[in-house]
Amino acid sequence: MKTILLTGFEPFGGETLNPSAEIARQLHGTMIAGHTVVSALLPCVFGAARAELKKQIRTTRPALIICLGQAGGRADITPERVALNLDDARIPDNGGQQPVDAVISRQGPVAYWSTLPIKAIVRALQQRGLPSSVSQTAGTFVCNHVFYSLMHELRGQKKIRGGFIHVPWLPEQAPAGQPSLTLAVLTSALAVALETAVKVRRDVRLPGGATH
Ligand code: PCA
Questions:
Q1: Overall fold of domain 3-209
Q2: 66 lines ligand 1 (CB under 6 A)
Q3: Considering Cα of 82, then 117, then 120, then 66, what sign does the dihedral take?
């Protein structure tokens, strides 16, 4: 049986919810494009999150790995294009660590590309009326740390694809005037994203990116 490993993060920064964990929980055990979704929760802790991800990859032996995280303030569901070899935390993680200007891997390259069909995912979501765009940076906190660690694990092989998708706040988290999406919308959107990631082998070429 082929599996998709889908990870979410525990709440961080003093919050009590993280939509990424809720989506992962909702999709756990579902079948998407002939694959069983296996979900896992990652601690929002530098190092420990990477260790847990590696453990999950070893035990589930997935065909595809998608890690999710919360990007409060974003309005769109955003597949990330590139993971940076950098930890630079504005706030402490859930373990109290706050790395500054630190490389993730001394031997690793400056960055890795996502191997998900990011533009096909954006198009599939937009075609269903869901807000989505490519993000050019996953930041330099624990999400980017996990994304980089994932791509470092997957380097040098072509079979297992992987990447990272950031999602907006849930309505119950968002401060007044800030964008959010309901858990129902996010869950159905991520099901579409996973299906697209399984089915589309070659990404589509569409104009995108920012003008600044
Ligand atoms: N978002 C944070 C870390 C965990 C999460 O859900 C980030 O974007 O780095």
A1: Aminopeptidase (3.40.630)
A2: no
A3: negative
